[in-house]
Amino acid sequence: MAKKEFKAESKRLLEMMVNSIYSQKEIFLRELISNASDAIDKMYYKALTDDSVTFDQDNFYIKVSTDKVNRTLTIADTGIGMTKDELEKNLGTIAESGSLAFKKENEIKDGHDIIGQFGVGFYSAFMVADSVKVISKAFGTDEAHQWESNGTDGYTIEPAEKDTTGTTITIKLKENAEEENYDDFLEENQLKSIIKKYSDFIRYPIKMNITVHQPKEDSEDNETEEVLEEQTVNSMVPIWRKNKSELTDEDYENFYQEKRYGFDKPLKHIHINVDGTIRYNAILFIPETMPFDYYSKEFEKGLELYSSGVLIMDKSPDLLPDYFSFVKGMVDSEDLSLNISREILQHDRQLKAIAKNIKSKIKSQLKSLLKEDREKYEKFYDSFGRQLKYGVYSDFGANKGDLQDLLMFYSSTEKKLVTLDEYVSRMPEDQKYIYYATGDSYDRIEKLPQTEMVADKGYEILFFTEDVDEFAIKMMREYKEKEFKNVSSGDLGLDTDDEKTDEDDKDAGENKELFEAMKDILGDKVTDVRISKRLKSHPVCLTTEGEVTIEMEKILQQMPDNQGVKAEKVLEINPNHTVFQSLKDAQGADNDKLQVYTNLLYNQARLIEGLPVEDPVEFTNDMWKALG
Ligand SMILES: Nc1ncnc2c1ncn2[C@@H]1O[C@H](COP(=O)(O)OP(=O)(O)OP(=O)(O)O)[C@@H](O)[C@H]1O
């Protein structure tokens, strides 16, 4: 059976491509400049194999110019040019890429990778053009040709005049429409910023005539006049391709500022050149200060993504895990699988591999910062420590292994931030748990009655002041096989087995009736009333049983989907406090008094925990009753 070829309605195909591939019209300039750069690179390759050709850098450039009267924009290059046949083949056939064919034929040299591969970029000009005129003279030929099209019904090719080798593309801009002002593409500043954004690291100079003000000749009162001056508007050399040894801290800082990654000075830069199964260059920064919108919905994480020096994406979110979302910077790789719009990636295998690599580099750099420059690390931690803790908590603790050694908490004994490793390495042999206490500030935690006994044992306590702290630690469960223990939790594990004397049981037995009476008074506000083993000087405190602690209850209750989760609270009484005797005296003898005392003590314990008094009027009534 004879096989038939598919037919394509080329006019419709072109229309669809032009209007549906790209999300932004300004991309056309990136595409035409990339083509010009490819054409110059082809001259570079020619010079490598043909001795009669010399590649003198000064002769190779791209020039962007405008004619406001005729509303045209011109992109000219001094590259390899196209013959009549090539014009026909490359520009007359959608998806025909002379550049891809060239790439296959030539061994591509580092730093001179050809950008084009799909054979569609050129047509993006029709997003902004009513018509496009291409005049080209191929290297080694005497004749030039002109290709012209309005993008809908075909093209014409005819002989033309051109002195030098290369290609000149002239775009007649579309008439302005309500939603689109095509005149923008005639504005110097606009063009300059599009070039800077996408094509800053094209290796060859992109020149423009820029308006400058200079003193007027023969003028006496410092008058100035506007003149046009040809300037190169792109930076050309990507600093990430440079050797690290050639670069100073200042170079990196300048790059950070130029790219507007932040208004601060970066705390640290990470320059990565990987050349193995995956190949990429990256310059990453750890900022010093937190962006003002960092913890808001508006903040977008991501790194700039370049492919062969051409900007593909402003913020590629897939390159950074959420817990390192504060990292700024860029990644450049030749190996990315781009889709034809160069906007998104079709296969993200390479991207995933790069992201994994980047993640471990950031982790190891933070670790070495912590080791080598504690002061700087603490500055970093002050800004972004919270994000690391979120990282430990999220994904059900999947990343805790990566992050646990980057965490720091304030220590009761060291009076400064310490790492978990430092804590554990200082633990006395008989200490079973890593103790922590929660509260609004270090000051308040320090005064918490619950900390007394643990502190008295000489054990270090970590102070948790951020809402995420306890959630993160609960997700970790343990560090180096040591479990975490809130000083307010039921069993503190302070007593050795022999210390757990019968005395406790005896105490509990003796006071059973008192505690039952108090529990009856408090109802379901507490799950139990009992003797405290952690209090020394304070008469009472609240502790919790089960998973939810008081601090967690406070946070959960603030959440919009608060489901009324409550901590199981236990009122603990210090048997060695004078108040205890008063309670005992009141029990049986004066039940009203016992009620007043119990409620007062319960509310005091709430206040110490930073919980509100449930009924302030009743509380003050109880006060005067107790005083009276
Ligand atoms: N300025 C130019 N000088 C010389 N040849 C050019 C020029 N512009 C385009 N070409 C030729 O036309 C072909 C088609 O260009 P087009 O921009 O459509 O696709 P591409 O650059 O190959 O691929 P991509 O769609 O990935 O950009 C190129 O491969 C190249 O051979």
TrEMBL record:
Keywords: ATP-binding, Chaperone, Cytoplasm, Nucleotide-binding, Stress response. It is found in: Cytoplasm. Residues 488-509 are annotated as: Disordered. GO terms for cellular component: cytoplasm. InterPro entries: HATPase_C_sf (IPR036890), HATPase_dom (IPR003594), Heat_shock_protein_90_CS (IPR019805), HSP90_C (IPR037196), Hsp90_fam (IPR001404), Hsp90_N (IPR020575), Ribosomal_Su5_D2-typ_SF (IPR020568). One of its GO terms (molecular function) is unfolded protein binding. ATP binds at residues 31, 35, 77, 82, 90, 97-98, 117-122, 167, 342. Residues 24-177 form the Histidine kinase/HSP90-like ATPase domain. Residues 555-628 are annotated as: C. Belongs to the heat shock protein 90 family. Molecular chaperone. Has ATPase activity. PANTHER family: HEAT SHOCK PROTEIN 90 FAMILY MEMBER. This is Chaperone protein HtpG. It comes from Salipaludibacillus aurantiacus.
